[in-house]
Structure prediction request, 174 residues.
Amino acid sequence: MAGPQTMLGDAIGLAISVFAKSDLDERVLILLTDGQDSGSKVPPENAARIAVDYGITIHTIVVGAAETTGQEAIDAETLQVVSETTGGGFFRASSREELEAIYARIDTMKSHDADVLTHRPTSELFHWPLALALILILLYHGTMSLRVLITLKAHVNHPELELELQPQKERASA
Prediction:
């Protein structure tokens, strides 16, 4: 999920739960990241040890410049530990071409076709503008109905209109 935090351990945990429900013989996870773990409930190293219990191999790919510092710094040591613990490979890509070469290298490893499952947590917000639109429509129609009622009441109470609204026979006798 895009945002200021990279939760590698939680992502591995989510992958473990998906693999646990599958009947695949070969379980491979490609972990592509541009940063360091910054908020996981489970540290990536612990998640990797759990992944081994489920027979999951994790290949880690670091994308970005190696010389970044601070919060944007890449924690290559942790990612190497994750990949080594699970029997996967650790890769670094600083350009699109390098990333394509890494994927080509991973493709040559033992693999099979699998259905792709993506998980992107979202909060649906469509109901707020929908509710606002409904309220505005109701207010508009309510206001128009009130205007019509007020106008009708004003016309019914007008003496000249009463004569016009009377049937033909009553007009002749008046």
About this structure: The chain has seven helices and three strands. The CA atoms of residues 53 and 76 lie 23 Å apart. Strands lie at 27-33, 56-63, 90-93. The radius of gyration is 34 Å.
